[in-house]
Amino acid sequence: MAVATPNGGLPLQVTQSEVFSRIQGDVLLSSSLWANIALAGLSALLFVYMGRRVSSPRAKLIWGATLMIPLVSISSYTGLVSGLTVGLIEMPAGHALAGEEVLSQWGRYLTWALSTPMILLALGLLADVDEGSLFTVIAADIAMCITGLAAALVTSSYLLRWVFYLISCAFFAVVLYALLTEWASAATAAGTGEIFDTLRALTVVLWLGYPIVWALGVEGFAVIQSVGLTSWAYSGLDILAKYVFAFLLLRWVAANEGTVAAPSTAPSTAPADD
């Protein structure tokens, strides 16, 4: 519970130690964070071992992006479990928990803003897409995460929370469009279509789960009012969308480095000489 000010106004700021104690006191919540720290650490070690013989420039770039996924996650989840990137926010009028203080894991959005671009970078390199498309999709992805953070932290208006949510979904649509159309065609031309299709399906299905969890969890309609359950839903998605994804990608790249290193067979768009 928040500590009221002497004049009955806004609650006093809760200290980081108090947030940390609250996290550790909730077994469901804390376990969802510690599980990711452990898996991220093991994944990083495994990926270092799996990529030890990768040598071609493009394959090394994919490996580097893949390795960054668990490294970013272990740093971010440590911030969450310590209470550094967690805070209490009071839900606005109109929300199912209006007037109540909810534990906001805003640090998750920092994780996604840094780790999901690495996922897209790895996929883009695998498909051998052009730099302009790669930049555009990664920029849309980062914008998706930032506006998602805004949706989670706005307390002045319940309506504006959903406005930011819809803006975030619009950026997400840009990412989905690229994955389902242009990037798929590029991967086929690059000879990596089969593994790209598998990873694309995994990414699209799992990433669709995040806005669904947001809408149903404590940040949205609060159909699920347990912060611990909401946290486990996000953590479960992270485990599959990051570590399983990265393992499948790196295993294929290590076994098919010749295909990855080969130039794309896509037709050139440059004008022919007269």
TrEMBL record:
Alphabetized UniProt keyword annotations: Chromophore, Membrane, Photoreceptor protein, Receptor, Retinal protein, Sensory transduction, Transmembrane, Transmembrane helix
Domain of life: Archaea
Matching Pfam families: Bac_rhodopsin
Membrane topology: Multi-pass membrane protein
Transmembrane region(s): 27-49, 61-89, 109-127, 134-156, 162-180, 201-225, 231-250
Keyword Transmembrane helix appears in the UniProt entry: yes
Cellular compartments per GO CC: membrane
Localisation per UniProt entry: Membrane
Protein known as: Bacteriorhodopsin
